[in-house]
Amino acid sequence: RGKDEKYKVRMPKLRMVREHKDKRKSIDDVERNIFKFKKSSEEKKMEKEEKLFRETFMYHKEIRVLTTATAERSVPSQRRADLPVTAGEQLDVIDAVQGHAVICRNSQGRYGYVLVEHLNFR
Fold it and tell me: Which position has the higher pLDDT, 122 or 112?
């Protein structure tokens, strides 16, 4: 009985060790990770906002800033796609769509439509 109990206890430990060996990283992986930098929480948030923007607006082009504009007055958002702005806020104009609205990005990295009449272009 003593040998059987020891054998039963030992088997799971051996399995754990084998799984651990398989999960260990090779030397090549460790060397590659030296040059990778961890992203800050702000960068992660910006990437999340960009992903949400691309899904919401079905925007597949490269995101380029055409110009910067300043909000003349504070405007709350009426729809989910609208960007709420405060007076004096700096906005990056990403794309000019048909009509009276442009797609803008604020300093927090959020995207949305803003009416041209609420913006002051320098």
Answer: 112
